[in-house]
User: Which sequence fits this backbone?
């Protein structure tokens, strides 16, 4: 961010009055342009004990497998965004259930949120951002070809919790911070 | 957003190739400027069965009471942001516990997240954005003078769950969407 989106003047980086952090400030029109982390919202789509994964057709991590997820859009809720991404990337209609995991990725300026989701039917298809989409049982998950640490961690938690019968009752959101060193 | 933050050219609003929504696109340098909802992170600071509230010194809702909360900053996690806001607005050091509530406010393009938090001591002080800060037991909560529906809903859930003994065990995140019509 170099120029003011409101008036096209060159921006200054400074700490505004009554603030404690450097911001992009326009000395010309007086506006302050805050920057904040973005939410990535997605789902764990389940059909008949299998989980639906997408193989990415875009960078980063082209060719690797992911849970359907993407940036939350203005005007939608986290759960609506998760359902939308599941339909867009995997062609699957789901009923969104409870929030399952919240993973902070501070170095990427992102928060990843995954919802449990029930597929209406075993129908799915690769969207524009997916090379292919497939249902996997636990034994066939491509652990060495997963796209992101937040997806790997969410799947690990999910299968452990399912085996322990925890998902049948009420359970807390699984949550942790992801470190920059965590590359798959 | 009128001008490109990268090159100061006038922006065009259009649907980019491989997208389905209108974005702010720069025809000059080719950049697409996405806009996404922001997270407001805060805490429910507890000391000796009382909850710490702040009376707002800033708009919106100047003079009304709120849980300490504010916009999540780049480079921090949701829980770190909640602890930071609690210190900045209420002068209180807390141990952040589990995520308690997630409220979507689509019309405000925000997601509000509140964490349970234990105060280290009954010490607190009004920060720059607070007129005063005080501990309240359930009977003395100023229900008619709360700043935001997400704060009111979180406190209602909290006292009901505490009375039911739910907070002693594991519990799911309380979550719902807030409607534009919900003004306090």
Assistant:
């Amino acid at each position: 961010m170099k120029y003011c989106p409101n008036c096209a003047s060159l921006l200054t980086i400074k700490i505004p009055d009554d603030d404690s952090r450097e911001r992009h400030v326009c000395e010309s029109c007086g506006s302050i342009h805050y920057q904040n982390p973005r939410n990535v919202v997605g789902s764990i789509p389940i059909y008949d004990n299998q989980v639906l994964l997408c193989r990415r057709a875009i960078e980063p991590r082209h060719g690797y497998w992911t849970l359907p997820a993407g940036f939350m859009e203005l005007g939608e809720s986290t759960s609506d965004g998760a359902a939308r991404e599941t339909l867009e990337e995997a062609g699957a209609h789901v009923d969104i259930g409870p929030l399952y995991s919240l993973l902070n990725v501070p170095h990427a300026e992102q928060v990843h949120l995954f919802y449990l989701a029930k597929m209406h039917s075993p129908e799915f298809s690769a969207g524009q951002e997916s090379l292919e989409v497939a249902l996997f049982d636990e034994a066939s998950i491509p652990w060495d070809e997963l796209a992101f640490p937040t997806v790997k961690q969410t799947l690990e938690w999910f299968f452990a919790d399912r085996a322990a019968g925890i998902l049948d009752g009420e359970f807390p959101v699984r949550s942790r911070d992801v470190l920059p060193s965590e590359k798959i």
Summary: The longest helix of chain B spans residues 149-163.
